[in-house]
């Protein structure tokens, strides 16, 4: 059985997460028992929620145990099998974690799913046709429910979730406005993804200037906010919300390293009669099949575009993850393992 490089959580962050919180470990892959499958991971997904799991705090997800392989989504290929449902060569998506190989009980429902790579690249099953894509789909369709002609604003607009939100909103006839960090990300959001406008929040460091830019980009106000970040961007959009607007509260990445992310004018929720709903995509599994079918069709037909930042080798995962929390990624952050 092959040697298996793994990344463990070694210690918990005090404030900002750091590369020193992780440890590279060389392990031996165990022999397969009946029903098990050996998967060689081609790509590991790095996602912001992993930062929350590094803390030993009450949350919707259990903390990542110390001294064990970091959890995470993976795509790869079955290389050995003692399960009749899987054959060597099958392409699969699962939760293999931050390591090169995983041994999976293939008979447990939901542990490993075969995927078709004829029309959809394997890596996309960790992005637009995976958890981040379904997150975008769920928050937009089930919470925002945009109508044609309405205005949808999404933060972290060039990222894995945000890029899908804006394109789905456009496909439903809405005006899509992104908020992203830097001129390159904003140019991509408008010119490649087809958003109507994008605000570079880094060019508008104070609330007044950000609000003025947002006002220009949303002449008819904002009907739906898909919030990924929190902080002054959320504040600015709240002030532009139309009556009976909807907010899908998906993430608050600006606060994941411990910084406070206050809402400065919560009275706007009342004054504008807004609906604000937080959600966790893994709690809405009943919607995944419909979402994945739509997203898969859009990617396979070239109608849903995506971009990836790819780090090379399992050793690079900690640094790439720290970069993701600072906006160094441009598109879905992956680690290539083969
Ligand atoms: N609720 C759920 O079930 C669920 C599921 C998946 C994801 N999420 C959330 O969705 C959000 C986006 O996730 P993703 O996977 O698509 O990540 P992503 O957008 O691909 O990458 C994260 C992006 O967040 C922005 N960012 C990072 N730190 C920031 C900071 N301090 N201030 C402002 N922006 C910052 C950066 O973009 P800029 O350079 O543009 O700032 C960075 O590129 C996250 O908040 C995540 O936790 C929620």
Secondary structure: elements and pairs:
Elements (H helix, E strand, L loop, with lengths): L2 E7 L12 E7 L7 E10 L3 H5 L20 E8 L9 E4 L6 E5 L6 E3 L16 H14 L6 E5 L4 H12 L3 E6 L2 H9 L5 E4 L6 H11 L4 E6 L4 H9 E9 L17 H5 L3 E4 L9 H13 L7 E5 L4 H8 L7 E5 L2
Parallel strand pairs: 8-9, 8-11, 9-10, 11-12, 12-13, 14-15
Antiparallel strand pairs: 1-2, 3-4, 3-6, 3-15, 4-5, 5-7
Helix pairs in contact: 2-3, 2-8, 5-6
The chain binds NADP nicotinamide-adenine-dinucleotide phosphate.
NADP nicotinamide-adenine-dinucleotide phosphate (NAP) binds next to helix 2 and helix 3.
Q: CA-to-CA gap between the ends?
A: 17 Å
**Overall pLDDT metric:** 97
- The CATH class designation of the largest domain is Alpha Beta
The overall number of domains is 2
Characterize the biggest β-sheet.
7 strands, mixed
Oligomer status:
single chain
The proportion of strand residues reads 25-35%
